[in-house]
Amino acid sequence: DNHNRTLKKIELFKTTGSAGSVSDSTDYLENLEAEEDDISSLGDDEIGGKVKINLADMDVPSWEHDLNCDLDVINTLLVSMAKVTPEDDAKLQHLTTLIQNKIENPINDGNKKVLIFTAFADTANYLYDNLADDILATKDLHTGKVTGKDAPKSTLKKSYDFQSLLTLFSPRAKEKALVLPDEPHELDILIGTDCISEGQNLQDCDYVINYDIHWNPVRIIQRFGRIDRIGSINETIQLVNYWPDISLDEYINLKERVENRMIIADVTASGDDNVLTAKSSEVSYRKEQLRRLQDEVIELEDLKTGVSITDLGLNDFRMDLLNYVKTNGDLANVPNGMHAVVPSMPELGLHPGVIFALRNINQAVNINQQNRLHPYYLTYIANDGQVIANHTEVKPLLDLVRTSCKGQEEPIQNVCRLFNNRTDEGRDMKAYSDLLSSAIRSMIDVKEEGDIDSLFTGGKTTALVNAIAGLDDFELVAFFVVQEEE
């Protein structure tokens, strides 16, 4: 539909010569959530923050040709897809068998519940249409469907909203007896997209199926977190993943190729190149996470590769802090400059150097709001002055601090002795003072890089504003010396 509307605008422009405009939807597409896969509603007045492109400034014949080629490919794909009926869909048939086996052989006594996640609303609709009636007819169990796109739906006679359907699926955890006392039935099968957000308590269920795999493994673990919760009465819970019928290299690289094409389109259309931030290291990092999820039974709190239920947030660190304050009292009167010495562990990312915790005392500086901890800043500098992690990498830095310190209630004698020898019992701190200056310079460098990027974007530039003067903008709160052992 979007292609057709654009082609109609082009035809109108060719006929009348009026200088109409079209909208660059790259930003919208990049931020599109999986369940928001219907982009037919794109229009000039519907998506904000897009770049308007005047047709008089474009190579209209070439673009029209490319759009028609796209339509030919799309129509060919649609024709091919239409040949695959539900009866011929091996994946759907396997899912049907899997659900039947779970119902007939529950992993916890009497628990027949199954939670099915998919990335797209259309896929959720497809699964519901082909599973719900059959499950009701053969097993006398009710099925529900929730997406971020359509109204919730179920095989119950009455219509229910989003929260009510979740309550019917997890009646014990969500206190159905109080909320919906007049509904005698409950749901045993729930099909949904990632609109079932973090924080939903669905621990009545003991079985999660990922019908498709999100490229970011954190999303997979977050889905499992809907049932892996405190208060579950289930002795065993299970996660089933439908891995793509291609290698992980192909799967991850496919995503990267799509992003690169979008980057090319973005730079060509608007000159905005600040989306060129996807690094090969990030791709390798996610690939390693997916491999481990596919091949190993891993601990969710394993921080070596960052797979964690709360990877996208800092809630676990807040809980650590709250528990510490409950045990040890308020930290408000703790003096600045406290430090700890921990051993280096290169295999866990702890290389010899210093992690500085700083507090910004210049309220005009927020470093372009890139720092989630503002006015506090963490930065990790190696002994040679190289930046290991800058202040924008909050989660990895906090992971490293936790890895180095958690469970250690007393000074680690061997590394403390090395630190004392190096600094003459703390009297000669010049080396660490120089590293602190390097840490401040690293934050200035990161801001300047962002300023340069901002000059080429369609929005306001951050250059020459909120400038960081240097060390005078910060005070040292604490630091962690990562000491190499002899």
How would you characterize the overall build of this protein?
The chain has 486 residues and is an alpha/beta fold. The chain folds into four domains: 2-82, no CATH class; 86-241, Rossmann fold (3-Layer(aba) Sandwich); 252-288, no CATH class; 330-483, no CATH class. Helices cover 41% and strands 14% of the residues. It has 14 helices and 13 strands. It has helices at 2-16, 26-30, 60-82, 90-104, 121-139, 162-169, 176-179, 217-224, 248-270, 280-295, 315-328, 394-405, 413-423, 430-454; strands at 21-24, 51-54, 114-117, 142-146, 153-154, 187-192, 207-210, 238-241, 338-343, 353-360, 376-382, 387-389, 474-483. A six-stranded mixed beta sheet has the order 5-4-6-3-7-8, sandwiched between helices. A five-stranded mixed beta sheet has the order 9-13-10-11-12, with helices on both faces. A hairpin with a 4-residue loop joins strand 11 and strand 12. Helix 1 (2-16) packs antiparallel against helix 3 (60-82), helix 4 crosses helix 5 and helix 9 runs antiparallel to helix 10. The longest helix has 25 residues, at 430-454. It is extended and about 80 Å long.
